[in-house]
C-alpha cells in the first residue's frame, strides 16, 4: 500500500515558478505564487499529481472549513475540503483518506474518498498517536483500511481513551446504465 503522510511542520521548498493560478484566501487577501502558503499548496498538489496512493494521511490541524497547512516559516493556509476532494479525484487507487486532526469530520458533508476517517471533536496528541499506531499495525498485517479503523479504535480503548471521537464515512456507489461507478 503506497501512503503519503502530510503534516503541518514539514519544511517545503518552493518550486521555481508555480504560477499565479491559486485562488485561496489567507487573512482576507488572495494568495499569489510568491506567498509561502501558496507554495505549500503547490507542493502538496504536485505530490498528489506525481504519484499514485492507496492511502493519504493528513496529521495536523483542521476546522469545519478544511485542513490547515503550514510552511517552515509559519504561514498558514486552510485547504477547503471540497478543494482537497478535487485534488484527490485523480487518485484512482485511493482507498482511504485519514484526517488525523481535531474536528476534521465536522466540515465534510459527503465522503471525498472511498473511505474517509477523521475526528468529530478535539483529539489530543496521545490519542491521535495511539489510533495511528493501531491503524498502521493493522495495515502492516495485511488488513483493509476499514479493519484498520476498528483496530485503531480498539488500541485507543485499550488505553482508556475515548475512541468515539474517531469516525468514518464511505463514498456511495451509484449504478448508472448497468455500470457500477463510485462518485
Please give the radius of gyration in angstroms.
17 Å
Number of helices: 4
- Which parts are unreliable, with pLDDT below 50 for 5 consecutive residues or more? 4-35, 174-183
SSE pattern, N- to C-terminal: EEEHEEEEHEEHHEEE
What's the overall average pLDDT, rounded?
A: 76
Tell me about the biggest sheet? 5 strands, mixed
Amino-to-carboxy terminus distance: 22 Å
> How many structurally independent domains?
1
Query: Biggest sheet, strands in spatial order?
Result: 1-4-8-9-10
Strand content: 25-35%
Q: What is the percent of helical residues?
A: 25-40%
Cα shape: globular
Structural class: alpha/beta
Task: List how many beta strands DSSP finds.
Answer: 12
Secondary-structure topology with pairs:
Blueprint lengths: L2 E5 L17 E2 L2 E2 L5 H15 L4 E5 L1 E2 L3 E5 L5 E5 H8 L7 E5 L14 E5 L5 H16 L4 H14 L7 E5 L2 E4 L2 E4 L1
Parallel strand pairs: 1-4, 4-8, 8-9
Antiparallel strand pairs: 2-3, 5-6, 6-7, 9-10, 11-12
Helix pairs in contact: 3-4
How would you characterize the overall build of this protein?
The protein is an alpha/beta fold. It has one domain (3-124, 166-182). The chain is built from 4 helices and 12 strands. It has helices at residues 36-50, 81-88, 125-140, 145-158; strands spanning 3-7, 25-26, 29-30, 55-59, 61-62, 66-70, 76-80, 96-100, 115-119, 166-170, 173-176, 179-182. Strands 1-4-8-9-10 form a 5-stranded mixed sheet, with helices on one face. The chain has a 3-stranded antiparallel sheet with strand order 5-6-7. The chain starts with a strand and ends with a strand. The model is unreliable at 4-35 and 174-183 (pLDDT under 50).
